[in-house]
């Protein structure tokens, strides 16, 4: 007896002791009518859950007695689980009417979960009711045909940037203009995601998706809100705010005040915008630059060393809990930009010792091991989630950038290639992982949110991971983009670009969009295409001074 037969037998045995049909009538155990086997395309499966099913499956159910034919139609249903839409089908009988075979009338959708249910109202030819209803789960296989018409790679990049930009433009908060944290967050806006959104607006102006004046007006709206309504703590902003009132929305119980890392993402965007709107005659552009400078100079970066008591920057400060979060900002992770901006401050810069002793831990952030024949200079084993090589480098140009600890182009390219090659090797044998389908980073997953990487991998691919790696792995990232768009099609591609994540092993697709994931797609694709954001941010005179002070060398700093 195989596991499916055993499972069906156990259900039958349990129901025999206490069972009623749908009308509430008791079923007599003697001479009972029950399901013996369930086969999908001739195969049985544990718990009647079938994966990688053909889009036109043949489902056969055998019973202990011949079936009363006229009881079948009201007792059987095939449902698309994602839409609850009934699916039409044809059924037939065999083996002296003791086997029922069900076939959908039309091919099922790929990568979709269906449920075939046989209720206990099904009767045998002797008018006995089925002892227990049967539910068969069917998840269809991947369909490799193109879902959209092919266009040139250049037009595809335009399309991805333009549609993803809509998250920040059409869905920006109506009162503040800031980026909502996610598409279901209502009034909750994000400081770091807004920094990414500001940079996305600059791309949109440069690509003629919107006018320069419209982009300027939106960023001015954001800066006015940040200046006049948003809560600040020693000049730094909280992770989340209410987009109407500017009040802090706690990220967690004790994270109810300043978030220095999120503030640095916001300032990265604002400084980039200041460099873009460089007119000496436009009153609006002059006013925007002045407003940005006031916000920038208002951040008390050095105060986040516990007011000078330590050689570490600290991530959080709370007006209620003070330094209780006690999280030093140490590398290697996404917060290089925090130290660069802190060193670049006109008003409260940190010393090089904070960078060396705190961030770099005097070299302890080094890795130096090889993974998939690629040497990784910094960070955890296999590099960690890919956003480490994205968030700080939306503005910082890693080309030919070096300091005492690493060559940052080598670091980010190695990190991306290791992530790519891990997914290509697919050591855990997840469905879909390949040279075309890769990318592990922080994102939503089927039952929550997690920072995915080779050491924390559950089959969840995040489109932002491969797409925001475009400057480092242009060939591999373009392969992923084509796969996401053409092969996964409208499962993945929606009103605001690609959804946040998917898991082909579980045939799960997110219905969410996150500001911190949508922004890097637009920005890093643009950096690959034109280096626009890199050129703007690296043109900041304060950044040049600050990075040189920390020991960085790059042609962009000359």
TrEMBL record:
Record bears the keyword Signal: yes
Residue ranges of the TM segments: none
Domain SbsA Ig-like positions: 51-129
Record domain Glycoamylase-like: where: 328-541
InterPro entries: Cu-Rt/internalin_Ig-like, Glycoamylase-like_cons_dom, SbsA_Ig
Entry keyword set: Signal
Presence of the UniProt keyword Lipid metabolism in the record: no
Name this polypeptide is given: Beta-glucosidase
């Amino acid at each position: 007896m195989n596991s499916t037969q055993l499972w069906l037998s156990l259900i039958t045995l349990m129901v025999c002791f206490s069972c009623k049909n749908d009308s509430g009538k008791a079923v007599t155990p003697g001479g009972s009518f029950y399901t013996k086997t369930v086969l999908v395309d001739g195969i049985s499966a544990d718990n009647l859950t079938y994966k990688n099913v053909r889009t036109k499956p043949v489902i056969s159910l055998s019973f202990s007695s011949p079936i009363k034919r006229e009881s079948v139609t009201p007792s059987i249903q095939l449902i698309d689980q994602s839409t609850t839409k009934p699916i039409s089908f044809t059924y037939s009988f065999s083996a002296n009417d003791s086997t029922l075979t069900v076939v959908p009338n039309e091919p099922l959708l790929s990568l979709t979960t269906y449920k075939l249910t046989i209720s206990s109202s099904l009767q045998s030819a002797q008018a006995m009711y089925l002892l227990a209803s049967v539910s068969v789960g069917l998840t269809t296989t991947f369909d490799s045909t193109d879902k959209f018409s092919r266009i040139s790679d250049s037009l595809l990049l335009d399309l991805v940037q333009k549609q993803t930009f809509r998250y920040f433009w059409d869905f920006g908060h109506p009162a503040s203009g800031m980026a909502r944290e996610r598409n279901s967050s209502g009034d909750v806006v994000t400081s770091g995601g807004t920094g990414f959104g500001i940079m996305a607006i600059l791309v949109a102006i440069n690509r003629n998706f919107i006018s320069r004046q419209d982009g300027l007006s939106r960023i001015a709206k954001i800066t006015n809100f940040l200046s006049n309504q948003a809560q600040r703590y020693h000049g730094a902003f909280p992770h989340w705010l209410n987009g109407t009132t500017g009040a802090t929305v706690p990220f967690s119980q004790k994270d109810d005040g300043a978030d220095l890392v999120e503030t640095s993402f916001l300032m990265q965007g604002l400084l980039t915008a200041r460099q873009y709107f460089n007119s000496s005659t436009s009153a609006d552009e002059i006013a925007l630059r002045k407003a940005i400078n006031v916000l920038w100079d208002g951040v008390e970066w050095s105060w986040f060393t516990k007011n000078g008591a330590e050689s570490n920057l600290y991530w959080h400060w709370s007006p209620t809990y003070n330094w209780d979060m006690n999280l030093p900002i140490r590398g290697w992770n996404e917060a290089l930009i925090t130290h660069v901006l802190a060193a670049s401050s006109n008003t409260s810069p940190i010393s090089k010792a904070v960078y060396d002793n705190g961030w770099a831990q005097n070299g302890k952030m080094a890795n130096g091991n090889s993974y998939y024949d690629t040497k990784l200079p910094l960070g955890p084993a296999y590099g960690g989630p890919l956003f480490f090589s994205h968030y700080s480098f939306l503005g910082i140009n890693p080309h030919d950038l070096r300091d005492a600890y690493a060559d940052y182009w080598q670091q980010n390219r190695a990190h991306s290639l290791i992530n790519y090659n891990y997914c290509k090797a697919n050591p855990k044998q997840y469905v879909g992982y390949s040279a075309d389908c890769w990318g592990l980073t922080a994102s939503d997953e089927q039952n929550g949110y997690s920072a995915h990487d080779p050491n924390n991998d559950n089959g969840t691919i995040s489109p932002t991971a491969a797409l925001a790696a475009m400057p480092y792995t242009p060939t591999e990232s373009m392969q992923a983009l084509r796969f996401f768009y053409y092969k996964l099609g409208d499962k993945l591609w929606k009103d605001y670009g690609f959804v946040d994540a998917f898991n082909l092993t579980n045939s799960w697709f997110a219905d969410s969009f996150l500001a911190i994931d949508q922004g890097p797609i637009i920005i890093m694709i643009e950096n690959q295409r034109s280096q626009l954001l890199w050129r703007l941010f690296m043109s900041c005179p304060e950044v040049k001074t600050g990075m040189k002070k920390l020991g960085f060398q790059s042609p962009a700093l000359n």
